């Protein structure tokens, strides 16, 4: 199948590394190098603080505080459940904080395969409950807390929203889901057809879910697409990339949210591929990052 990629993105494909998740520990080094190559964000108008959230075990977070912040985002990084931390996510968390005017709490959740499901979602939920319980001392509004993430982090954010609803946990005001990984079954049209697209391949997704789930059968808290009831969830923004294996599972999830009475904004970005928003020189990538910030600002100031 011919891929009609955005011309600016296509020019960078040869420079975009192809990760092999057979050895996640090795790939973490390459992932960190890729993140380090991204132009540094402007943090002159942000207060940035690293702290440990009390939990068992403690969860590292990096907090970005814009001046006169409106609302808070619990942000979960991508990396196939096996790569990434608050340092590799710094270029994106800082940009979202600056663009949205929201406090962004970037979560350094535990990684698979050393810490398979449910370690990562437990860490995400621990940070959510901590932020809600300590809202006054953190200087945030407990009624204006959103969850969000990219790729695997988007799936973790969706799972966090499901758990908060089911356990009558903290009220989540909004979900910001960017190309989320929601379904380990890989049965959609895009998952079957886009087996070797830039950055994301079928083998890579299979390895990612294998490392994450281990021997545990998938549940809605691991793969949110498996949830049979989506009623009562927070409003959502769902962004998809045209040449992304996750595309159709994300669109289907957005439609199911709508059919369950949940307000959704869905944006399918033509000519893009999974993670291509990291190619900041491209105009479409700049638009994607700006839109994440604008959508969050609008959601948290309603």
UniProtKB/TrEMBL annotation:
Gene3D superfamilies assigned: alpha/beta hydrolase (3.40.50.1820)
The segment(s) forming the Alpha/beta hydrolase fold-3 domain are: 73-276
Instruction: Print the keywords alphabetically.
Output: Hydrolase
- Going by the entry's taxonomy, the superkingdom of the source organism is recorded as Bacteria
Q: Which residues form a coiled coil?
A: none
Q: Which protein is depicted? A: Esterase
Task: State the organism named in the record.
Answer: Streptomyces violascens
The opening ranks of the lineage are: Bacteria, Bacillati, Actinomycetota, Actinomycetes, Kitasatosporales
Q: Which gene encodes it?
A: aes
């Amino acid at each position: 199948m011919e891929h009609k990629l955005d011309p600016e993105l296509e020019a960078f494909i040869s420079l975009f590394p192809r990760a092999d998740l057979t050895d996640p520990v090795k790939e973490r080094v390459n992932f960190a190098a890729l993140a380090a190559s991204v132009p540094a964000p402007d943090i002159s108008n942000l207060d940035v603080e690293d702290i440990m959230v009390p939990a068992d075990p403690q969860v590292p977070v990096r907090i970005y505080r814009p001046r006169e912040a409106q609302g808070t985002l619990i942000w979960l990084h991508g990396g196939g459940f096996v790569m990434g931390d608050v340092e590799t996510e710094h270029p994106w968390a800082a940009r979202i904080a600056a663009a949205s005017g929201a406090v962004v709490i970037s979560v350094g959740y535990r990684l698979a395969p050393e810490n398979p499901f449910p370690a990562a979602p437990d860490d995400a939920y621990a940070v959510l409950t901590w932020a809600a319980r300590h809202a006054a001392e953190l200087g945030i509004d407990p009624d204006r807390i959103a969850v969000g993430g990219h790729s695997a982090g988007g799936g973790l954010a969706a799972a966090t929203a499901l758990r908060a609803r089911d356990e009558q946990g903290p009220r989540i005001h909004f979900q910001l889901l960017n190309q989320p990984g929601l379904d380990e079954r890989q049965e959609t049209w895009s998952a079957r057809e886009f087996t070797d697209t830039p950055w994301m391949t079928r083998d890579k997704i299979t390895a990612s879910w294998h490392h994450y789930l281990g021997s545990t059968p998938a549940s809605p808290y691991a793969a949110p697409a498996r949830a049979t009831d989506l009623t009562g969830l927070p409003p959502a923004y769902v962004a998809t990339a045209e040449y992304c294996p996750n595309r159709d599972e994300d669109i289907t999830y957005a439609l199911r949210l709508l059919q369950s009475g949940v307000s959704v904004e869905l944006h399918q970005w033509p000519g893009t591929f999974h993670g291509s928003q990291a190619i900041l020189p491209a105009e479409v990538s700049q638009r994607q990052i700006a839109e994440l910030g604008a959508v969050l600002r609008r959601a948290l100031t309603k």
